[in-house]
Write a structure and sequence with these properties.
With 305 residues, the chain is mainly beta. The protein has one domain: Beta-galactosidase, Chain A, domain 5 (Distorted Sandwich), CATH 2.70.98. The protein is 6% helix and 43% strand. It has helices at 6-13, 129-133, 254-257, and strands spanning 19-23, 29-34, 38-43, 48-54, 81-82, 107-113, 119-126, 139-147, 151-159, 165-167, 169-171, 174-176, 183-186, 192-195, 201-204, 209-211, 216-220, 227-231, 236-243, 247-252, 272-279, 285-287, 292-303. The chain has a nine-stranded antiparallel sheet, with no helix packed on it. Strands 5, 11, 12, 14, 15, 17, 20 and 21 form an eight-stranded antiparallel sheet that branches. It has a four-stranded antiparallel sheet with strand order 1-2-3-4. A hairpin with a 5-residue loop joins strand 14 (192-195) and strand 15. The longest helix is centred in the first third of the chain and has 8 residues, at 6-13. Bound molecules: 6-O-phosphono-alpha-D-glucopyranose. 6-O-phosphono-alpha-D-glucopyranose binds next to strand 20. The site of 6-O-phosphono-alpha-D-glucopyranose has 10 residues, from strand 20. One of its GO terms (molecular function) is carbohydrate binding.
């Protein structure tokens, strides 16, 4: 029996009323999480969180209704885990967009429900035939989700090889928003970014608020700053603190690029903003043999006065 099947996972990891595993009709397995403060769904495919709904609030995370949810395909929305490269592979070798982590099957390590009502789920990924064929043999990645009123994620990579492990990584979070035209991200003022819409030209974010008035695809380098997404249509603020991440990417395809993304509805772009906790480009990680790198993202949502 597959290790990733609900029938084998439930006896080991289900927690009555809080955590259960289900097989989907499309052939994947997901984890249904319920806490007094939130509901969430995580697929073992990609260790991909597709839903985080704090009780009594608008959804925290956006999932495209047209997303593929099947083996071998990337999920559109939620929190894609990007590793070991970001975007197209850059060293001239073959490999899937944004790395193999988001299309790999992850192992469930543990589940836990705390007296405070927080569910913690940990998944891991190690080398398999596919990763070895791409040149990644001796690594371990692990991701921990703490799900409650807040969403806290820890992503760790360990180098089990005898040479440096060089990689990029990212939590490509699609935050749900009421209306992208009334959204602004704060916390990037003064940073230098690579503008992917403009031949990767280096530019400086000159304003306090980064507003979304057209398609945006920006890689902000050398920034560890906390961020606030002002989601005015839903009268709330989404706060993101991060550790171990030196790059922030923000992306929205707008009406311009959406027609090229068949797993988005024509109007989907209005309802999410990607603000991504990452280490990419000149902030990529070089990990010595035996070392572990950790990156954290802590999300909380507050009502706007
Ligand atoms: O369509 P995907 O492979 O999921 O990538 C979606 C987007 O991810 C990141 O935000 C990149 O900066 C974008 O250039 C890319 O288009």
């Amino acid at each position: 029996m597959s290790l990733h099947n609900a029938a084998s996972l439930n006896p080991k990891f289900a927690i009555l009323d809080h955590v259960r595993f289900e097989n989907t009709p499309e052939g994947l397995t997901h984890i249904v999480v319920k806490t007094p403060k939130a509901e969430a769904t995580i697929y073992t495919h990609g260790a991909h969180l597709t839903q985080w709904n704090p009780v009594g609030q608008h959804p925290g995370i956006y999932l495209s209704p047209k997303s593929a949810l099947e083996p071998g395909k990337a999920i559109r929305g939620g929190i894609p885990v990007l590793f070991p490269w970001f975007g197209p592979r850059s060293d001239g070798k073959e490999g899937p967009m944004h790395g193999f982590a988001r299309i790999s099957e992850w192992n469930v390590e543990s589940t836990h429900f705390s007296p405070e009502g927080v569910v913690t789920i940990t998944l891991s990924l190690e080398a398999d035939d596919h990763t070895r064929s791409l040149g990644f043999d001796k690594f371990r990645a692990a991701i921990q989700f703490e799900i409650g009123e807040h969403l806290d994620i820890t992503f760790e990579v360990t180098n089990h090889g005898s040479e440096d492990l060089v990689f990029e990584e990212g939590l490509h979070t699609y935050f749900a928003v009421g209306d992208i035209t009334k959204v602004a991200t704060e916390g990037l003022e003064g940073t230098t970014y690579l503008d992917k819409r403009d031949d990767l030209k280096r530019k400086v974010q000159t304003t306090q608020l980064l507003e979304y008035t057209r398609d945006v695809d920006q890689v902000h380098l050398n920034t560890t700053a906390a961020l606030t997404i002002h989601d005015d249509a839903w009268k709330r603020e989404i706060h993101i603190e991060k550790q171990g991440s030196n790059t922030t990417v923000t992306w929205n395809p707008w009406s311009v690029l959406s027609p090229g993304l068949p797993d988005l509805d024509p109007e989907s772009w209005k309802h999410f903003v990607c603000v991504e906790t990452v280490n990419v480009s000149e902030n990529k990680i070089t990990l010595a043999p035996g070392a572990t790198h950790r990156m954290d993202s802590n999300v909380r949502i507050t009502a706007k006065a």
